[in-house]
């Protein structure tokens, strides 16, 4: 039996600028089919910028390196082309658009994902968003409602590489259960390891989402660089105890060649 996993995402020596500010330097990341990564790091360390670069937001200018997705160099591709290849993203703070109803955006997502009108209503009910369908997207939505709306769009898009930017922030205790279990299912975490086809990259500060989604690896971004890769639960514990620098120093003692390419 061939047990070799397929490569999903390979980021090689990525450098990134926004305006004239360098936000990422020499970032390397390798994700295989079925794997879920948790991305940690202090505020402003470049986590959301990395996700924006992967999905092809043109505001973020790639200054060096390459992004390979499912074996194809996507560094110069548009966001639409990348989504067609199979990636999807739930943003931390998506735009509010007056006059564009949530249902219209969901129909667009469902077309991308080959989902039916019936699916839209079924998943909207599941995520308790059925009463929001006729409202302008994100307009006056609470923090938790924005998260459920983003997740609903992601489900309907039916992609196989999912990026979620802080899906657990600002979510109350009841809704974190709903969101956590939904993401767990989306990333097929209940399937056997070698049967999982979905891969993920989740940004989290508190690690709350990791009570539901048993990520395979944790990565710390620090000052725009990958500073530590390891067990996500060990990283969380170490950061809580000794802060980011303490955790990174420990990681470097254990893996002194982490940043040599
Ligand atoms: N569109 C933008 N315009 C100007 N500066 C930006 C933009 N996006 C990101 N930055 C800057 O890039 C740096 C990294 O920001 P980013 O949002 O990626 O950090 P983060 O690690 O996701 O932070 P947080 O945990 O606070 O969400 C910050 O200094 C931020 O101010």
UniProtKB/TrEMBL annotation:
**Is Nucleotide-binding there in the keyword field?**
yes
UniProt signal peptide: none
The protein's matches in InterPro entries, at most eight in alphabetical order, are given as: AAA+_ATPase, ABC_transporter-like_ATP-bd, FeS-cluster_ATPase_SufC, P-loop_NTPase
Q: Which residues form the ABC transporter domain?
A: 9-248
Q: Does the keyword Protein transport apply?
A: no
* Origin superkingdom: Archaea
Which Gene Ontology terms cover its molecular function?
ATP binding; ATP hydrolysis activity
Q: Which UniProt keywords apply?
A: ATP-binding, Nucleotide-binding
Q: What is this protein called?
A: Iron-regulated ABC transporter ATPase subunit SufC
